[in-house]
Amino acid sequence: MKRLLTYLKRHPLATLFAPLFKMLEASFELFVPLVVAKMIDIGIYQKNAGYLWRMGALLVLLGIIGFGFAITAQYFAAKSAVSTGRDLRNDLFAHINTLSFKEIDTLGTSTLINRMTNDINQVQNGINMFLRLFLRSPFVVFGAMVMAFTVDAKAAIPFVIVIPALAVVVFAILLITMPLYKNVQKQLDDVLLSTRENLLGIRVVRAFNRQESEMESFGKKSSRLFFRQIHVGKISALLNPVTYVIINLGIIAILWSGGNQVYLGRLTQGQVIALINYMSQILVELIKLANLIILLSKAIASLNRVNNIFDMQPSIKEEGAFLASKTPIGSIAGTAAVEFKNVSFSYNETAKEVLSNITFKAMPGQTIGIIGGTGSGKSSLVNLIPRFYDVQNGSVEVDGGNVKTLNPVSIRKHIGMVPQKAQLFKGTLRENMRWGRKNATDEEIYQALEIAQAKEFVDSKDQGLDLMIEQNGSNLSGGQKQRLTIARALVKNPDILILDDSASALDFATDARLRKAIKQQIQNRTVFLVSQRVSTIRNADQILVLDDGTLAGIGTHEELLRENEVYQEICASQLSKEEVPYSVKTAN
Ligand SMILES: Nc1ncnc2c1ncn2[C@@H]1O[C@H](COP(=O)(O)OP(=O)(O)OP(=O)(O)O)[C@@H](O)[C@H]1O
Q1: What global pTM score does this model have?
Q2: 374 lines ligand 1 (CB under 6 A)
Q3: Does any ligand 1 atom lie closer than 6 A to the CB of residue 311?
Q4: Into how many domains does the chain fold?
Q5: What is the domain range of residue 488?
């Protein structure tokens, strides 16, 4: 709540004017029954047409002024709500961008998207309604009661009974329904998450012919939402009949006692009508208030979920010593570009270690091949170099500095990372290529495309660097995307290039040409080549063989082929017998 207040304070005028104008509108509304009473008692009773016209005009005037105030209040309430929503959304997006992968993995992307969209929208709607009604409704309820007493204290006694009775009913129903509405909201979350996951993975769903079972599972979640909504709806539906019964009993009481008073000449007919009108105003406002409370309870639940993300602190902060961006890595003679010293790592403290006791040195200009079975820890290992995660034991050093003491942004400036999943963004090819270096020239981009073996296919498209890339690169093939992501990393001209299985969708010939071009054209750069293919890493200066998170061997292709059983097994499954002359125990 405190956080929300600081956001509302950024728009003080709109936030104050909205309830203020709503109160002014309500004040005008409270005079209407009095004017109607006068019309009955004087205009109709005395058959005074002139008076009726004047009072009629006054009613129209009250209506126009009230309408003006209502529109102004609505404008300010919407302005405050929308501005607060925008600020919250921007700040939450910025905050999510500071979170480390550890937190993002824990929360999950779908949850984060939900917080950014649905939850902030709920908060926005809550603010809008709150500013419009939180002062107006209680003001009208008590104002109408006070006005009723000014009409006639004795005849207004039913108000003293009806208002508390109404309040008790409304709040009892709210008390029962509020937790139920929370459940509805939770289920709605579930449905939204499921929708998002299914639509993002629609190709996989179709490929596995899972439509039926996915529809069934979605149907179940959707039905659960339906039943929860119906259940809470049934209880909420009691609100209207019960409140109408109470109000009508109040009206009967007013009519009965008021009628007697009119008969005795102590009260006029107009005054009785005014009392009935005030009773109706109270009913309408109490129902509005109940709806406001329901909406607020949803908005508060959403606000709490947004706050949970705001309260989450990044485990890796953008602080620490700066790795000089102007001095290339490898300038200090004898210092390794990257060094792992007894590194052990797991994704969370309680989980099994994904990497255990890894020690190796990558000297500047060396190419390091990393090979191992699926899930052996190859991607996890390279993700530690740009400090995407922090290790639990040992240390990862870049250019002689422990990454834990270095500002992660400054480390990443030196690294060109090509992740396993090729990810491009909507925009032109040129915009995508400039992600690592804003001012890269077309010539530099073409040079990178050439090394990445992507120039030919870019040239085959008429638009060249203006080629429009759709969301997620959906208008490109898997291999084309991979080559473009490699080119994007090369445009950055990094000191350390990490290719995490980035050529898996390329044919062998293109893969070979790519490696040759990297070797010839990017010298003095340290390159990490992660692959499951022996052919990709066999010419590396050093090959790390990973087996279930441990370093099973380190050396050149020839050394490992001679001495390392795990490597021999991998080679035996991929290379010809002539290329693997050594005995392999479990070769296939
Ligand atoms: N974000 C994560 N959170 C939790 N566990 C993870 C995460 N990423 C990977 N793992 C686990 O860490 C282990 C190593 O995964 P990693 O991706 O490093 O293997 P890999 O050798 O690169 O596999 P592949 O060749 O299939 O890409 C696996 O058991 C995997 O389940």
Answers
A1: 0.78
A2: yes
A3: no
A4: 3
A5: 423-493
